[in-house]
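Quick question about two entries, pasted in order.
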Amino acid sequence: MSLREVRFILDSNETLSTRVLVDETSTVYEAMSQSGLLPRDGSLRYAMDKHGNSLNHQLVGKAPTTIHLGMLKRVESIWGETNLKGPFTGTECLDGTKLIIPGIEVGDYINVFITPRNQKNGTYAYRFRTEGEPYLDGDIVFAQAPRKGNTVSLFNPQTGQEDIKVNYQCADIERIRGFWGCCEIRNAEASKTVVFRPDLTPVPSSFKPHNNQPKIGKKYNKMKIKPVPCKMKIPSVAKENQSIFKGSVLQPSGGWQRALISGNTPKKGASCEGVLVRFARKNSPALVNRPYYQDGHYVFVKVPESEEPIQLYNIHHPNSPLKMSYALKPGISVDPKGQWAVARISRNASNKRMLIIEGVPRTHPSCQI
């Protein structure tokens, strides 16, 4: 048995910390239980890395040596406080955020996952459990109809990510693609399914479903993807872990245009090569990825509207793109599907590379340079 020392820090009070010596093959959750920093009333807490990603079920041997204890940004433990219209109950978080939760009663004390769906009277959330199955038959969740395909992802309290894939069932799914509404859990222990409940959330006559059909019009030949010349503006003092830089890129039609370039800086000088993934626009720069991907670095990606993995240019095998699964960072305030986004290269519980979608270039802190 190989032992490893792990330091736990309380997020709400960073002056409180403890060190635990544990077996490397145990989970972070097991080590966390020995820290003495968990609430005595059994309230939910997560072990997290410095980026706020859940580490609960990662092996200690693969986890960082310093671990934060707290709550994920889109997870809350709440009391049901007020009856709202239809199947909804309302509550207010400590920070003033108003939540709207379907399928619970006033007086219930539960854990909820907060969706990106906002309305004037609050933000929608739905219940999950931390013991046994997170969702039971008859539970009501609030989910978006898939824009493509027939599966959606629910929050997984073990991983801290939306990675429980379930079938989405609706009599006329094409009519409601992209619509947020109440769904009922069916077959919770087997092939999980969510069934859209129009009686709880009627579809407005003005709603326009997401159109998955290709647009008819002028056809453009796709540019063959390959690295193109770039120039980086390397700061005299780089920020810690900085992996996005200002620069310029040579457009296929000729001429240099301003760009945001992700990846390592060149070993010598400012000239380098990168993959132009999005052309410059009137009010925004081109987006370029240097095709040498490292854990912790950022890349620019187009987030699929389905659950399929994201593809990145493979410099070693240009005809065989790298495929990585992705998850949304807890607390992300926009729905990035179908948009260009900033993603951080990370590792999942199986130590496989994955992408954490953190936001869009116009608002992401790493792009404000």
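Here is the second entry:
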Amino acid sequence: MRKEGLRNTCLPAVFLSVTISILTCFSFAAEAVAADEAVTPSPAVAEQKPAAAPEKPLKIKPFVLKSEDGLASIKFGLAVQMVYESTWTKVEDEGPHSNYITFKHIQPGISGNLFTPDFTYKFSFEMVPGKIDVVDAFVDYSFHTHAQLRLGSTYVGFTRLRMNSWTNQALVDFSIGPKYFGSERQVGLTLHNGLDKPGEHEYEFGIYTGAPSRPSYDAGLAKVSKEKMLQPMILSEDNDDIDKIHPELVGHYAYNYNGIDVTTETDWEKTNFRCSAGLGLSYDPRPEAYRDFAMRTGLELMMKAYGWSFLTTFWTGFYDKSDEYGSPEVDGNFNYAMLGLVLQSGYLIERYLEIVMRYSHVNVGSDYRKDVQARTQAILDGAADEAELAELESAYKGAGVLENDNELSLGINGYPLGKHLKLTSDVSLLWQEKVAADTKHDVRLRLLMQMTF
């Protein structure tokens, strides 16, 4: 016990020590570069010096190889995220305490163009210890000023909140909303007018396999029903075959006013008022029962001005009931399942310090909970023997009991090297309410160091 306590105490100290050492090195390097580049102007030049432009965040150029004619290029990128997390769980008066430090993301990738600047590609992998995932694997062709086609594994164009990279999140991770409503990457075809650099009128329309590449997002129905989510993009023996292709149709439109950058949650520009309003819709005509949404909707709003940022997204999810419990066939009707909401506000101070607050809420409809409970009981009643019953009880433990899931977070970000080095500390209150059970309360502390190149 004493050794365990000592180890738990040392983990955050080691994390902070490494972080401070890196920051110190970067600070001396930045000062040296600034001293070398400084030039004392003559009095005549000094008198004609214009007003200082707004300070821009530091930008490190990526390593790029390209042909002389510009018809082919390859850019190398790397994003790393190391997280220390400590969680205290409280049910009534007692609860466990856990903490760990890990590489949450190690994501190398390459991108560029071939034959023409209009034909681009991107490949990236998640290479955290013990698992390798295919993250991005697509090609993109721009055949018109306002029209591009993307083919391969990429983000589904459902809501901007989840289309954006984790590297541009204001806090350590996404809110609980995307874990229920998505949308995660899928293999498919997307028609868009600049998914990564959207203009004033932004659109994305696509058709996809209907199977998210990772089981941790777009899993709202399964979180309640306890159905297993597939993992088709993991490069290991644990990957799952897509047992049924059921094309999912997705559309998203947003109006982006006054040049707002919707690809990041932080207001790096710090200029006058900008805003964006969008709507996303997803339809799956042949969903897997109690695992895939038949339809999802997403309403979103983002506003930025002079370093202040605000965003909100509101989701609703619908499901198809089985013709009979235990059957994968559905009745073809939309039935309300759950709704979700996220509210987030932040303020960037002098481009190096940011304060962020976020509230997230997911509510599960009572009809869906009762339907899941009845279905689970029917599955258990169909067990052939005691061994199968025990296996089913373990698999479906807790099915249909979740009423709502909540998160309240406060975080502070430091950007000593602009977007390339981010240090975050956030604390969250997490609570879940369940049927005929005590409310589960978690208090979570996270420290993050993120580097992107």
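Reply: The first helix runs from residue 2 to 37. The helical segments are 2-37, 43-47, 160-163, 176-181, 220-225, 366-381, 386-395. Hope that helps.
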